[in-house]
Design a protein that fits this description.
814 residues, 11-stranded mixed sheet, 7-stranded antiparallel sheet
């Protein structure tokens, strides 16, 4: 019997060894992951508590000695004697903290996720190949590598990343590589370009062309003009203040052909193929106040980009000090230089413009070979690009991407949808050297340097806010903007008609900008860039106005401001939307029969101070109610199983609620009764109350806004929930200055007080390290959740003493 038991134990042990040593479908081999010698146990890190720790590294490719001082939140302060070594060291330390993040995001842009994640990401990979992210990265790389400064930075950064990778044994791989069962691959400058493409896709990779074309087909031009205005009809506070003179002679606009959209009436598009509308609050805030509003007598600048909240953070803090630069701020892991930051003379930040720089063109091929397409009354040859998508556990998938002069063909008639064959014209394909903008801003000394730096920028278009020690403040709506007729690209364009092509570019010097405006501040919150007097077309859709309105209201009255004044504004929870609409809505609700809970909710809303504070129950009711109201008004007309559309703009909805109570759109066309504004408003209020009750029980403390909003910061895999944060308990909301929603919000908050010795403060949720076993993985989260900032340690020399410095690394040439 003992022999049998021993034999069975041996078989079971052998089976376990076999099972743990091989992958099962997309699941990697778990043996190496749990091994005490190579597994996740090896990924723990210790916290350095004083400045006596010295580490010496001997590295290949380094030219001279580099000193790196680490502070108590894990930020590297890099001091190099030449720029090559500076970016080499930046690549090395960024890879040390964020290697898997860099790998994942570049794989996503290149359409290579399926290599490591299997068939679940195949459609995403196919979409990114068809959108031409790799093609755009290659086009930009040619330009960047032709410029000596950008080439040096990219080559050096890649060498630093690769030096770190070469030092890794399998036991040292970041834990995600172990979980997914693959090894890091060498880095090259093309990967940095893919990172830029990924950000361009996030911020300028959406279009409403198909939705708007379907609406035009169904309702006609008059309804489109009424419900989808090109400039807000209810309330706006544009980025460039109204009345700012346009001191240039504009180029003539291309003639607008008629009709604005193709006449084919059968445009029906599968919803799965078209990007969803932008997440509310996905954008950013920035502003700068002039010396006259500041207690310091110098400008103060603030920036908080609102993006998806992830672990690790989108951003990585770093100080870069070399022979011609000493800059601090945040970088994008995978790209050399600082993207948002400051030096001893200037500070800058960015918000998204959401320019209309992705257009869809209906294309007609000569035959099934797709070798030629019809344009300008002739057949023109296409170009073809063979894309091979490797899929973990399956055979390779081959994708032939066809290119026209517009761009790649992303959608084919009859393939997945009933719509036309369409090519994509996108700013992400335009060759340029946007990197040089940040390289130059890092070294800027004054306003002229700032303006010169912006001339290199292509996209994604950003509102660049600026301040300097000469007491200038400025903002520029900046990017490479196509020269279009008004509304060109609001609808699907005719790919055969040369009049529908992009006809050139708005001169950079004519991009909207303002310097030292009389009001004493500049600001942006993704609202309209300009009022309708600006002679060019940039976009027709913008973020709702409420954040911009609130920021400008507070900055207008601000005096004797400090950096903390601007921090408090970043955390402002006031609900301008509720102030605008709630009193009117309540008059309709109080006119109908309500139960006791509904009456209590009305009383709460009447007493509410419009603050979306974490403990507010009224905020939860309103935030559940207003999207329910939008559905009640528009869903019957603008939602269809066969036709893909969007709702009218929010400002237009507010205008109708406040000024057009008899508008026919309040009627639900799918019911026999004729609904009125009172029916819709009161019905949506009751529906919102029912939804909150179903999900959170009877009205009480469980309805507090922080609990209902339930902000969560997720690991980039989305699957590894133990690597997520616990729920965040803060206020704000998508249309609030503190634009924290379920999964989006201030990804980096920064305030810079200019002056002889700049003082700066910043925070992001999470920490410097992407390693869940590191003490620097979540060490900044509590501070961010409270709305506080950390003072940023800005060193002047590698030997400077500071109580917050914890360790030193010396890199020496091998």
């Amino acid at each position: 019997m003992k022999i049998v038991k021993a034999f069975l134990s041996l078989i079971i042990a052998a089976g376990l060894v076999y099972a743990l040593s091989r992958p099962w479908g997309p699941v990697p081999a778990l043996g190496p992951f749990i091994s005490p010698y190579t597994g996740f146990w090896q990924n723990g890190e210790v916290l350095h508590s004083d400045d006596t720790t010295l580490v010496e590294l001997s590295l290949d490719s380094l030219r001279e000695e580099v000193a790196i001082r680490y502070d108590d939140i894990g930020v590297p302060h890099i001091f190099a004697k030449n720029n090559y070594d500076l970016y080499y060291a930046q690549g090395y330390v960024t890879a040390r903290d964020r290697l898997w993040q860099m790998d994942l995001q570049t794989r996503a842009a290149a359409g290579r996720l399926s290599e490591v994640l299997g068939p679940a990401t195949l459609e995403m990979d196919r979409r990114n190949r068809r959108l031409g992210l790799g093609y755009g990265a290659e086009a930009n790389l040619k330009v960047i590598m032709s410029h000596p400064q950008s080439r040096e930075a990219m080559v050096a950064y890649a060498a630093g990343v690769n030096e770190y990778i070469r030092q890794l044994a399998p036991k040292d791989y970041p834990v995600e590589f172990k979980l997914l069962g693959y090894a890091p691959e060498p880095w090259g400058p093309i990967k940095s370009m893919l990172m830029l493409e990924q950000m361009t896709q996030t911020l300028a990779g959406g279009a409403d062309d198909l939705r708007m074309t379907n609406i035009l087909k169904r309702y006609g031009q008059a309804v489109v003009d009424d419900l989808f205005p090109n400039y807000p009809v209810f309330q706006e506070s544009p980025i460039i203040p109204e009345g700012t003179p346009w001191d240039f002679k504009p180029l003539p606009l291309p003639a607008a052909p008629k009709p604005d959209a193709p006449i084919d009436s059968s445009i029906i598009v599968d919803k799965s193929l078209v990007s969803e509308p932008p997440v509310e609050g996905l954008g950013s805030n920035n502003w700068a106040i002039g010396a006259e509003k500041s207690v310091t007598g110098y400008p103060i600048l603030a920036n908080d980009p609102h993006l998806e909240l992830t672990l690790p953070s989108i951003w990585y803090q770093v100080q870069l000090s070399g022979p011609d630069v000493n800059v601090y701020g945040v970088s994008l892991p995978g790209i050399p230089s600082v993207i948002i930051g400051f030096n001893k003379n200037v500070a800058w930040g960015v918000t998204n413009v959401d320019a209309d720089v992705m257009d869809l063109y209906e294309v007609k091929f000569r035959d099934t070979t797709r070798a030629a397409y019809w344009h300008d009354n002739q057949w023109k040859e296409t170009r073809k690009r063979e894309e091979v998508i490797r899929v973990k556990g399956q055979a390779d998938v081959r994708e032939e991407v066809v290119y026209t002069h517009h761009g790649p063909v992303a959608f084919y008639k009859g393939e997945y949808h009933k719509g036309p064959t369409m090519a994509v014209k996108w700013i992400g394909h335009e060759p340029g050297n946007s990197f040089l903008t940040f390289h130059s801003l890092n070294r800027a000394s004054n306003y002229d340097d700032y303006r010169q730096a912006l001339t290199h920028y292509v996209g994604p278009a950003q509102n660049f806010v600026f301040a300097d020690n000469s007491k200038n403040i400025a903002i520029t709506v900046n990017g490479k903007f196509p020269l279009k007729w008004k509304q060109q690209g609001k609808f699907l364009l005719d790919g055969s008609n040369p009049a529908h092509d992009w006809k050139g570019w708005i001169p950079m010097e004519q991009n909207p900008h303002v310097k030292n405006p009389p009001r004493g501040f500049v600001s942006s919150a993704n609202q309209s860039s300009v009022d309708p007097t600006y002679p060019y077309y940039i976009n027709w859709r913008q973020a709702p106005s409420e954040r911009g309105v609130r920021i400008n209201e507070r900055l207008q009255t601000m005096t004797q401001a400090t950096g903390d004044s601007l921090r408090l504004l970043q955390n402002d929870n006031f609900n301008v939307l509720a102030r605008n609409i709630l009193p009117t809505l309540l008059t309709y609700v109080k006119a109908v029969s309500l139960n006791s809970a509904q009456k209590a909710a009305v009383k709460l809303l009447e007493q509410w101070d419009y603050q979306n504070e974490p403990t507010s129950v009224a905020a939860s009711i309103f935030e559940e109610w207003h999207p329910t109201l939008a559905d009640a008004i528009w869903k019957d007309e603008f939602t269809s199983d066969t036709l893909f559309m969007r709702y009218p703009t929010r400002d237009r909805t507010l205008y109708m609620l406040l000024n057009q109570p008899d508008a026919p759109w309040f009627d639900n066309v799918k019911t026999p009764a004729r609904e009125t504004i009172r029916d819709v408003v009161a019905g949506s209020f009751k529906a919102a109350m029912d939804t909150l009750t179903i999900h959170h029980g009877p009205m009480g403390t469980k309805w507090q806004w922080a609990l209902v909003k339930d902000t969560e910061i997720r690991h980039l895999t989305r699957m590894l929930k133990p690597f997520n944060t616990l729920p965040i308990r803060n206020g704000g909301g998508g249309s609030i200055v503190n634009a924290t929603s379920k999964h989006h919000g201030p990804s980096w908050r920064m305030v810079v007080e200019l002056g002889p010795e700049p003082k700066a403060y910043g925070i992001y949720p999470g920490g410097q390290s992407g390693n869940p076993g590191s003490p620097y993985y979540l060490n900044l989260l509590d501070t961010w959740e409270k709305g506080e900032l950390k003072e940023l340690v800005y060193l002047q020399s590698p030997d400077q003493s500071h109580p917050r410095l914890t360790s030193k690394v010396v890199m020496k040439k091998n």
